[in-house]
Amino acid sequence: CEGLFLHLNRLVERYLPSAVNPFARMGAVANTAFAISLISGILLLFWYSPSVNHAYQSLEALREGSFLGQLMRSLHRYSSDACLLFVVLHAFQTLFARKFAGPRWLAWVSGVFLVGVLWLDGWLGYWLVWDERAKYVALGTAKLLDVLPIFADPLSRSFLTPDMVNSLLFFLVFFLHMLLPLALGIALWIHIMRLHKSVFFTGKRLTLVIALSLIVVSILHPATSAAPADLQRLQADFTIDYFYLFPLYLTQHLEGGVLWLITLIATAVVTAVPWWLPRRKTSVPTVLEERCNGCEQCFNDCPYNAITMIPREGRVALKSFIDPRKCVGCGICVGSCDPAGIIYPALPPLAARRWVNQAVQHSPEEAPAVNVAFVCAESAGGDLAVDADGFSPELPDYRVLPVPCAGWVHPLLVERAIRRGAQRVLIVGCGSDPYCRKGPAWTEERLEGRRKPAFRREKLNGARVGFLQFNRADRKRFLDAARAFARGESPEPSSISRWQKIALAAMLVIGLNTITVAPSDAPFLASASPAPELVVTFQLPGQFVEQPTASTGGQEELLPHMRSPVTLERRRVPVRLRVTVDGKELLRNAYKPGGLFSDGTSIAVERLPIPPGTHTVGIDIGNTPDPEEWNFHAEQVLEFTAGYRHVVRFEKGVGFRWY
């Protein structure tokens, strides 16, 4: 699975510069899309009305009368979809490359939280349109929340009739939709807090491509609403955004408790990935205090903020400290240290120097000068078969030393190999999206003299040092390039024309936009057309009755003057409901009082399937102590149609209402 992303990176970078490769910086692409979504959402407030009675009409007026407003709405939707798409791709890439174990667990766990909050924000955003999609979102949310002891009145009861929809609840959803981006910002800071010099947004060129492509898509395929929310309608044909609304299939068919169970199990399994899919343990470098001169180069080079400079006793200069809880074992700090004051346990610098001395020892009469290759364990050469002396049958012209990262190689080690007689020195690092982040970049800058410690080209023939970057999917190209370098040949110039590059760039943009737009407006495959339904609901307190408490029992056996005063307790009786259709009783039930002390109102929501056609519906409600007394009665003739429902609502002081 990791090879899929590696092949994508290889394909794109054969035609396009790495700086505009979206697959090499998917986290930054997601952040850029989120920023566009945030800005367009704020601008959308100039047209949108956050009221359950006016939300749909305000968006329809925007669609018909404001090009800019409609553009902001479409841009808000598609940038949100692009954000979630690249967040998920970034998560899968991290999973397949196993960049989650050890100190990286915090980034993984915070990333899981980020995905959840981002999805929830989009889910609530669709509620705010108050169309048919929003109705299903509201009903699914209510099904989940009704399982929890939060509301005295079931939330799902608020979505039976239009006049029962709580405008305050709608505004609360709007407020949460506006507030959740703040939680996203905090979680994102936690997500990258252990990264040094992290790239938060894409570069100018890629940002321009993202923004322009989203604007073009928003103009060509504007976002629209479904039909207005009809709470009496059981089923409607509409499209949904599968990036955010795919759980509608679950909320339609599963109960709230099952939904919570699935959510909790899935969250626990995904969050625990760093512990049940661990990567092999890595070596953590240590600092030799007597060699550390406090230059801070390792502190500046560490990609994971694992190094801090701390005071040392009796000296002005600081010393480096490597936090094993943050260190991933890349060894970049080893390549940063001039006095060899950082020891990588699996490959100490002094041992590497001895290996170089031994590798290049030869007699001119015995053999020609050898080539030395330092090969990153995560690169295309990471799987080379290398013996203890550095010989590899796949690269017979080299003596190969596997290293944890290209950044581990110190320029002085390269100079040593050349001074001792190596004909050429090759450093091999990862391709795009390297496993140890800044390792290849720092190596390239050191070899070019732009970063300390720098390779001193003026003292040595720089042409004898090569640096190749290939990921694991590029094994053949790596071997060909390494063999060509050993022969002293220059790499072949690219045979790809400018028009081919433009064509691939266009195909890439069109493909990614298609993947973004197509699932965001796809048909919702609802279940078969449901039978007509009768919903009966009431909220009514039962009458009080006085009953002796349990402590006063057994008084009859005592003499009258010995009996204690009788203590009476007032309790509400259950409220009873009876439903008849065409004179046939379909339901008879009693509903206990609610409240902590069972002294509140009784609440009922009953759904009854009714055959299509005309039927006489009778409703009887009783709240008296007499179980056969029905003190509230209503009857009507109703026409039942497939796909629709009738609602009968009873409230004290109002009576029956028929919808």
Key phrases:
659 residues, 4-stranded parallel beta sheet, alpha+beta, Immunoglobulin-like, Cytochrome Bc1 Complex, Chain C, elongated
In brief, what are we looking at here?
By secondary structure, the protein is of the alpha+beta class. It has helices at 2-15, 26-44, 55-65, 67-96, 105-127, 132-145, 167-192, 204-220, 242-245, 248-253, 256-271, 273-276, 297-301, 332-336, 349-359, 411-419, 439-447, 475-486, 498-517; strands at 239-240, 286-287, 307-310, 319-322, 342-343, 371-376, 398-403, 424-429, 465-469, 522-523, 533-540, 544-548, 568-572, 575-581, 584-591, 602-609, 613-622, 632-640, 645-651, 655-658.
Task: Write structural notes for this entry.
Helix 4 (67-96) packs across helix 8. The protein is elongated and about 115 Å long. The protein is α+β, with helices and mostly antiparallel strands and 659 residues long. The chain has three domains: 2-229 and 238-276, Cytochrome Bc1 Complex, Chain C (Up-down Bundle), CATH 1.20.810.10; 286-486, no CATH class; 533-658, Immunoglobulin-like (Sandwich). The strands form seven sheets. Strands 7-6-8-9 form a four-stranded parallel β-sheet, sandwiched between helices. The chain contains 19 helices and 20 strands. Strand 14 and strand 15 form a beta hairpin. The longest helix is centred in the first third of the chain and has 30 residues, at 67-96.
